[in-house]
Amino acid sequence: MKDMLHLRIVAVASNVAFLAYGVALGLIPVWLLHLVLLPVNVIRLWQVGSRITVETVEPRDIAPAFRLTRPRSRSAIMRRNPQVQALTSTIHD
Q1: Which of 15, 29, 49, 75 sits most deeply, having the most CB atoms within 10 A of its CB?
Q2: pTM score > 0.90 for this model?
C-alpha cells in the first residue's frame, strides 16, 4: 500500500510540473489535461493516505482462503480421495 502512496505523490508532482509546462508554453491541451487530472490524483492520494492510517490503527485478519499457500490441482485432490482411488483401480483392473 505504501507503494501506491508513493506513486500518487509522483502523479500529483508530475501533474503540477506538466501544468506549469503547459501554461508556460501556452499548450492548452497539456495544461487542460493536467488541470483535470490534478484533482483526481489529489483525491486518490487522500484516499490511499486515509486507508494506510486506518490499516495501521486497525490491522485486518487475513482470511484462511487468502493465505500464501500453493493451491492444489484437481488431480492432486482426486489422488488423495479414497473413493476416487477405488473407482480408478476397478476401472484399470
Answers
A1: 15
A2: no
